[in-house]
Amino acid sequence: MRALGLQALAADGPLLSPVAAGVWRLDEWGFDDAALAAWVEHAIVLGITTFDHADLYGGFRCEALFGRWLKANPSRRDAIQLVSKCGIKPPDAARGWRVKHYDTTAAHITASVHNSLQHLGSDYLDLLLIHRPDPLLEPDEVAETFARLRDAGKVRHFGVSNFSPSQYALLASRTHLVTNQVEASLLHTVPLFDGSFDQCLQLGVRPMLWSPLAGGRLFDAAANPALAAGLQHLATELEVSTAAVALAWLLRHPCRPLPIIGSRKLAALDDAAAACLVQLDRQQWFTLLQLARGQEVA
Hints:
single chain, alpha/beta, TIM Barrel, 8-stranded parallel beta barrel, 12 helices, Aldo/keto reductase family oxidoreductase, AKR, AKR_Detox_Biosynth, oxidoreductase activity, oxidoreductase
């Protein structure tokens, strides 16, 4: 398969691969150094060169686990793009966090970036996202923090994750944002109808998508018999996997979303790359929407 090419996430935004590899469960995969290297290099060969992190993934361990590979192969930094997120503080007595909360203060964002770079073994992040909308977020403070991190060369681009359209608009009025990372799949079509994808189209930014395969629930014939059968029918017709069809359904949207695949299986990376070459027609797309929602469009 021909390697995928890089695509701009927004005007003046980073160049990322059309699908990303997510590492939020890296601590559960049990990779030794050789297995980790094989997984990363397999993704790179396919053209999946964007790796999606967050500071707290794996109990704040996943970035350091990925960093084992990058620190051993520093010359590969230019071949990949690193995305990370910050702002969530789970309960942690050792850190003095009594209750799960969000922190988008300048001090926390700056410290999180410093720790991420140290763990990953990189001088900079290609993209930093605020992980969740913080009710106490001070937009001017966040904007000033982003500017300082950009000027220092620590972070090149900024965005958000799980923000509503109004929350995105507020922060975007103070600083340049290049994406909103949201949950979307055939079993979670909310962003198609709540204004999130519309806003991305209006602003010329591409959303990143987490859980694009709904954790595999899309393919559960017992729970979703009609949808599972419809995906299998199209997969047979198009000579690709059902996962590739489900991802192609997302990629078909005109806002040009960027799905994140979080699996230790090399075949899952293959499916994601294959999805980028599948073009569903309108009737195929609406057939899957109807099967997913259990009703035809009005």
